[in-house]
Amino acid sequence: MKSLVARTMAGIAAVLAVSAAVAHHSAAMFDMEKEITINGTVKDFQYTNPHSWLIVVASGADGKETLWSFETEGPSTLERAGIKRSSLQAGDKVSVKTHPMKDGRTAGLWLMLTKSDGTVLQPRGAPPPTKP
After folding, report:
1. pTM score of the predicted model
2. Alpha carbons 68 and 38: distance in angstroms, whole number
3. pLDDT at 100 (0 to 100)
4. Alpha-carbon distance 62 to 111, whole Å?
């Protein structure tokens, strides 16, 4: 009887873990039908698990500075795409293609980034970065 209870509890735990992982990795907050490009200067590159974040300061048409946050993959996935912790430094000029947030906040899902020297960084399923 104890074995049956233990197996049942293990099964429930596995289902809950899978459910949490699927819910955690939802992209529901991003407008996947829309792509925009933000030009700015890197403020910070947070190379962390489970998701890394790129923080960019962009200037609007009115000249006002706006802080943008771009969510991306964790370090192991970024490494496979050739993106290292040192790939982006504060002060780097970048152009970021993103799926913006549906609610209009200044954040998005990082799709592709081009540095001022032409280096292209693509975190999802892309070959290592290239220079023209």
Report:
1. 0.75
2. 8
3. 97
4. 26
